[in-house]
Design goal:
This protein is an alpha+beta fold and 329 residues long. The protein has helices spanning 2-17, 32-40, 51-59, 71-81, 102-109, 116-130, 164-172, 250-265, 304-307, and strands at 91-94, 99-101, 110-111, 142-143, 146-153, 176-183, 186-194, 197-201, 206-207, 230-233, 240-247, 274-276, 296-297, 300-301, 320-321. Strand 13 (296-297) and strand 14 form a beta hairpin. Helix 1 packs antiparallel against helix 2 and helix 3 (51-59) packs across helix 4. The longest helix has 16 residues, at 2-17. The radius of gyration is 19 Å and the shape is globular. Belongs to the peptidase C54 family. It comes from Geospiza parvula (Small tree-finch).
């Protein structure tokens, strides 16, 4: 499930920087943004979305190192890690109680303009923490690109057939990033459907450790699906899932809201999730998450892995599960 979470996030970053129509081709020279995305996911404890950072951040969600994650736990981990990632500058919203609140999302995505001194200080701090040559494209004011994750329970022990049509409808939306889920003992990244079968990518392949080369590029073959995706009957799906959507601009989110109202909410007697305009009054007040303060020393900012407490050994000595995190393209 950690790898599946990486897959969904990597697809969001591709949509963010390269566009949804971008496709990977073997031996073709790729833009610098592509290589920067890959470097975010390398199996090193100092990379923002490495499996080390995700596993360690899961400790705060009550999951010990090595303990299995569910879709909701992975969503919460991505939400926290994104706070430290100023280059991609994503707003990650994870719905509560099967409810998406439009007011809260817009409050989170519309970031106020920063003064030049604050922006300069923040940019310097980020470069110190994450290494040289990292510009901070995400510091400009305006709408922050949205990664929307909706954890759901679509049944008790098995998926309730009443949800199937709405579940498939989500894959048709132009904002869709697929879904996290699986079946007992197996986590998959679902990217579409064909009839009553779901199409998915399977992370259960052991591959050798990959690191960046001297020129900053990455041997990227293992980060992509080299064979046809798998299929499974939708009724075999575990009822615990998490839907993912990416909205680069506010108009994308407004369009998504319209599609949800038209294709899912108005046609379903038993709704898969709720979409409401205002923050429910009986909920605690919504406070947009912010990055914790980073203390500095004479040598500069505290590195991200130290800040998060990731005191793991070198991943170069390990064999890891698949790095196929960008397999959608």
């Amino acid at each position: 499930m950690l790898r599946c979470g990486q897959m969904m996030l990597a697809q969001a970053l591709i949509c963010r920087h390269l566009g949804r129509d971008w496709q990977w081709e073997k031996h073709k020279k790729q833009p610098e943004e592509y290589h920067r995305i890959l470097r975010c996911f390398l199996d090193r404890k100092d990379c923002c979305y490495s499996i080390h950072q995700m596993a360690q951040m899961g400790v705060g969600e009550g999951k010990s190192i090595g303990e299995w994650f569910g879709p909701n736990t992975v969503a919460q981990v991505l939400k926290k890690l994104a706070l430290f990632d100023e280059w991609n500058s994503l707003a990650v919203y994870v719905s509560m109680d099967n409810t998406v609140v439009i007011e809260d999302i817009k409050k989170m995505c519309w970031c106020p303009a920063q003064s030049s001194s604050v922006a300069h200080s923040s940019a310097h701090l980020h470069r110190s923490a994450l290494g040289p040559n990292k510009n901070t494209a995400g510091l400009c004011p305006g709408w922050k690109p949205l990664l929307l994750i909706i954890p759901l329970r679509l049944g008790i022990n098995h998926i309730n057939p009443v949800y199937i049509d709405a579940f498939k409808e989500c894959f048709k939306m132009p904002q869709s990033l697929g879904a996290l889920g699986g079946k007992p003992n197996n986590a998959y990244y679902f990217i579409g459907f064909l009839g009553n079968e779901l199409i998915y990518l399977d992370p259960h392949t052991t591959q050798s450790f990959v690191d960046s080369e001297e020129n900053g590029t990455v041997d990227d073959k293992s980060f992509h699906c080299q064979q046809a995706p798998h299929r499974m009957k939708i009724m075999n799906l575990d009822p615990s899932v998490a839907l993912g959507f990416f909205c680069k601009e506010e108009c994308d989110f407004d369009n998504w809201c319209s599609l949800v109202q038209k294709e899912i909410l108005k046609q379903q007697s038993l709704r898969m999730f709720e979409l409401v305009q205002k923050h429910p009054p009986h909920w605690p007040p919504f406070i947009p998450p912010t990055k914790p303060e980073v203390t500095t020393t004479g040598a500069g900012a505290v590195p991200l892995n130290v800040l998060l407490g990731t005191e793991w050994g070198s991943s170069a000595s390990r064999r890891t599960t698949t790095g196929g995190i960008t397999g959608l393209s």
